Amino acid sequence: MRRTPVGFVFVGAMLFFQGTGTWADGGTAASPAAFPFILPERKPDRPLGAAMERIYTKYEAPQPQDNELFSQFKYTELKGFDYHGHDGTVSRRDPSKVILHDGKYYVWYTHRQTPVPPQGAELCTDTVPSSDWDLAEVWYATSDDGFAWEEQGVALARPPRPDPGWRSVTTTDILVWKGRYYLYFQAFMEASGKRGDDCPVSVAWADSPDGPWTFSNRIVIPNGAEGEWDQYSIHDPYPLVHDGRIYLYYKSDFGENPHKVRMQGLAIADNPLGPFAKHPLNPVITSGHETSLFPFKEGVAALVYKDGPEHNTVQYAKDWVNFEIAAITELMPWAAAPYVPDAFTDTWDGRGITWGLAHFINYNDDWKTFHSVLVRFDCDLSRDLDDPEMKEQRVNHRPEVYYRQGLSARQRERMAGGNRQE
Amino acid sequence: MRRTPVGFVFVGAMLFFQGTGTWADGGTAASPAAFPFILPERKPDRPLGAAMERIYTKYEAPQPQDNELFSQFKYTELKGFDYHGHDGTVSRRDPSKVILHDGKYYVWYTHRQTPVPPQGAELCTDTVPSSDWDLAEVWYATSDDGFAWEEQGVALARPPRPDPGWRSVTTTDILVWKGRYYLYFQAFMEASGKRGDDCPVSVAWADSPDGPWTFSNRIVIPNGAEGEWDQYSIHDPYPLVHDGRIYLYYKSDFGENPHKVRMQGLAIADNPLGPFAKHPLNPVITSGHETSLFPFKEGVAALVYKDGPEHNTVQYAKDWVNFEIAAITELMPWAAAPYVPDAFTDTWDGRGITWGLAHFINYNDDWKTFHSVLVRFDCDLSRDLDDPEMKEQRVNHRPEVYYRQGLSARQRERMAGGNRQE
Fold first, then answer.
1. Sign of CA dihedral B242, B245, B246, B249
2. I want to staple B111 with a disulfide (CB 3.0 to 4.6 A). Which of B139, B245, B354, B355 is the partner?
């Protein structure tokens, strides 16, 4: 191999020209035998088009069923949670990662219990919520099997005004660090919706997952400076341990209509209370809504869903910063909060995940009783599990699922306009 | 810019090192200001992570709503087709591209009308179908608006044994070439399911879309030689006109369980009756199920769905051969057969598509009355349409859609096994 300053990129260019030149040059090269009937496991030594080249170089395996980072997702209703007849006055959403402690699974989540359902920013008061996560607290539950849960009650109540989170304490996630437990949370100091969904992140700690919890009463992930992408919101703090440090991923909403975007950044600290240094390459994930990651081999994998050009993907960053698409899937869990056995073990051999909790928002499909419910998801994104049922290549929906995505009145009007060329 | 044999690839390598080196080298470069609050329309001159680099280089625009090759899909029930009470004895599936002729839209499709629903390869006879597309004919329908259709009856009846298609004439597509009409079709000469779904492709022609049709009685796209990827099946012939020639894309099933794969190839001819030269880089699309393409700018775009590592994508090949992912979407139409106004105009300025027909298979969710129905889809994959409702970034499904993807009995048994680490 010829060594040049360009290194392997040069080889890539050669393959590119080799791969297309034979045809583009008018077929001057001898025509090879056709592609084989049995798909080669490794990249075959023959000219390949760009798409074929990609399945051998961009994914763990050329077929989804062999790709440890491809999975379908299965959903199961949880037992043990009461929603007050689903009238909108009780909501549970945005679960934390699940941890296992003394033989029990623990999960924390946003719990809203208000006299009325959310009324919007215009009508909200000190007791009437603006949004589903306004005037909320962090509650927790435990389970023996991950399906049936016992709600244990409040973990983080709203602190007194003007402490961070006095308006609402939401969207928490757990860190276990040197025997101590840390709950990072969105610390609202105004009702969501007043401008946007603005808040920084604070943290509380305890010596046991059952508490009691001590508020740090400080902002550990501050909003960015004016004009910076995360100037208004730091959402979905999601701590993992890597390379002896705390790697905390978070989401921010930025931009203005019609170009509001959601992207995800990384902040790193040596101490759970900070200071956290925001990564200079932020945002490191350009798509998705909530943050959902897990150690995988030496790197980190992310579930990327809902928003952006690369929604419905699983992405992977070997260096925990530069994320590549590792799989394209569908019907992914929202606010996915997996059970990550090696979240805090500082592993260089991440094993992956098989289940977790997520949420359904607007459970009733009715704005007047808006609330969310927790749900369990299962998958096979684990190197230690081989479940072919999770590796089926597609979801088969019933026709009514498609018909529900019908044309709007405005669209029908446009078509009735009679532009035959449309 | 320094000129080297590697050209722009060299520049790409520089950006790569620029994009990751500042952090990987321990932050030796001066820390830049954070990413801006307003997402730049063009790639900003600052260090970017791999994911951010990608949204500026791999897609038409950094955000889906500005990407002409991103769309959601809306579905509308068609009027005018009778399915005999949906008892499984009448099936319509695999529509052709839609064409406009004398002010009317035309579509051709696989029509099965048999005494009983499909019974499988073991039980099939000369009148009992093995599969939904066994013992079928090509029928056609016309419409003024694309929503209400008038079925015109048979276009291609099954020819006498042993002519190509004697067992079944299915999965047709239309070519208009020098004032004449050509229907390419799957020419079954044994019942589908005997070994696999094996057939070559034949063609019939007419001077009017209303026929009468003359069978060429020849195989125009033959199966590959033994051991080649397309040795058994040539499916979904899909002709377009490009560069003065006929570019016909097709699908083949190959490999063996559990690694059966579906990929798509290209065959090119100067004459509708052939000979067609298969492209040496076949398969050119590695994912998807049926073929669904349309000219776009100087290249061709493909709807890629159902199967493979890159399902749920829209792909684009500037050179009609080397396909790249242009968008990731969801709930795509199956057997999508768009109305492509410039399918046969030999355009170098393809405008895109806004609607077409597709099918739902197993309409009843019941194997005993298995049959398929045609459906209309709408989208905005057109450079001449700007419909924000089609550019919403995600489909919001109801919880029951997720719960329908439940754990199987086998999976529940595995979990009850009590592996706490799962």
1. negative
2. B139
Is B263 within a domain?
A: yes
Contact A74 B405 (CB under 8 A): yes
- Does residue A365 belong to the interface with chain B, where contact is any CB pair within 8 Å? yes
Return the SS3 of B139. strand
Q: Is position B51 within any domain?
A: no
pLDDT at position B196: 87
Enclosing H/E stretch for A201:
strand A201-206
Q: What angle do CA B179, B185, B191 make, to 5 degrees?
A: 165
Q: Is the peptide bond before B159 cis (omega within 30 degrees of 0)?
A: no
C-alpha B110, offset from chain centre? 16
Among A339, A172, A163, A320, smallest CA distance to B49 is for: A320
Paired with A304 in beta bridges are A313
Domain count for chain A: 1
> Looking at the partner chain, which of B39, B76, B256 has a beta carbon nearest the beta carbon of A406?
B76
Tell me what pLDDT residue B8 has: 29
Provide the token pair at A177.
């660090």
pLDDT digits (tens, 9 = 90+) for B143-163: 999 999 999 999 999 999 999
Q: Which of B353, B366, B372, B421 to mutate to test the interface with A (most CBs of A within 10 A)?
A: B421
The answer to whether residue A286 neighbours chain B at the CB level (below 8 Å) is yes
Q: How far apart are the first and last CA of chain A?
A: 53
Domain presence at residue B125: yes
The string of pLDDT tens digits covering residues B308-351 is 999 999 999 999 999 999 999 999 999 999 999 999 999 999 99
Residue B12 lies in a domain: no
DSSP string, B276-338: PEEPTT---B-S-SS--EEEEETEEEEEE-SSSTT-SEEEEETTSSS-EEEEE--SPPTT-EE
User: In terms of Cα–Cα distance, which of B19, B58, B8, B63 is closest to B38?
Assistant: B63
Smallest CA-to-CA distance from A230 within A271, A269, A279, A183 is with A279
Q: Distances from the Cα of A296 to the Cαs of A41, A71, A288, A310, A391, in angstroms?
A: 22, 14, 19, 20, 18
**How confident is the model over A131-149, as pLDDT tens digits?**
999 999 999 999 999 999 9
Token reading at B138: 């090509």
CA distance B193 to B190: 9
Q: Which residue bears the tokens 């009778």?
A: B82
Residue with tokens 């009355």: B369
Residues 6+ apart with CB under 8 A from A410: B389
Question: Residues B169-185: what's their mean pLDDT?
Answer: 98
ipTM score = 0.91
Q: What is the pLDDT of residue A257?
A: 82
3-state secondary structure of B340: coil
Instruction: Confirm or reject contact between A285 and chain B (CB < 8 A).
Output: yes
User: Hey, which residues does A337 pair with through a beta bridge?
Assistant: A357
Residue span of the structural domain in which A397 resides: 74-402
Task: Indicate the SS3 state at residue A400.
Answer: helix
Identify the CA nearest to B88 among candidates B29, B142, B129, B42: B129
- Omega within 30 of 0 (cis) for the link into A5: no
Distance CA A299, CA A315 (A): 11
Query: DSSP assignment, residue A72?
Result: -
- Degrees to nearest 5, angle at CA B69 with B63 and B71: 80
- State pLDDT tens for residues A282-291: 999 999 999 9
CB environment A61-74: b (16+ within 10 A), e (fewer): bbbbbbbbbbbbbb
Q: Give residue B32's pLDDT.
A: 57
B79 CB within 8 Å of a chain A CB: no
Does any CB of chain A come closer than 8 Å to the CB of residue B233? no
CATH label of the domain that carries residue B177 = 2.115.10.20
**Token pair of B326, please?**
């242009």
Angle at A209 between CA A335 and CA A151, to 5 degrees: 65
Closest-CA residue of chain B to A28: B280
